[in-house]
Structures are given as C-alpha cells and as structure tokens.
Specification:
With 81 residues, the chain is mainly beta. It has strands at 2-9, 19-26, 32-35, 42-49, 57-60, 63-66, 73-80.
C-alpha cells in the first residue's frame, strides 16, 4: 500500500460539509491503494500522474485505488467526510 502526503481544507467549501484534501503519493504497481488519513469516507478524487496521465480511481471507505497506477507519482485532490 502506498501513502499520500496530505494538506487539508476543512469546512463548508463548495461541497457542503465535506473536506477537500490536496494529496501526493507514489504508487508501485497498477491497482495500488492509498489510504487517506483525515477522511473516513472518500467521495471523489482527481489525480494526475508525473507523466500527465489522469488517474483512473475507485473508492472504498477512505481508500483510493489507482487502477492505472504503475510506478508513478500522483498529485491532486480528493474530497469526502
């Protein structure tokens, strides 16, 4: 499992009561998972790789799976509660 570096914007920011987190992390393989500490539930995310490719993601509780992960660094944001 890979790990994100996280910066958080809390409160009522365009998405109701959700938090928005700026995240960065490096995956090792396709379908690598990232646990987002600071969220109980991830509602969505937008990630871009170090090569400029958009991440294809799925969510389960506070875990983001990047299905086209490979060995890339990902930056972007996610939101949830």
């Amino acid at each position: 499992m890979a790990e994100f570096t996280v910066k958080t914007i809390e409160g009522d920011v365009m998405t109701g009561a959700n938090k928005i987190l700026f995240i960065k992390g490096t995956s090792a393989v396709n379908s690598d998972t990232f646990t987002v500490s600071g969220l109980t539930t991830v509602a969505g995310a937008y990630l871009v790789s170090s090569t400029g490719v958009a991440g294809t993601c799925t969510f389960a509780t506070n875990v983001i799976t990047v299905t086209n992960g490979a060995a890339l660094t990902w930056t972007g944001l996610c939101w949830g509660s």
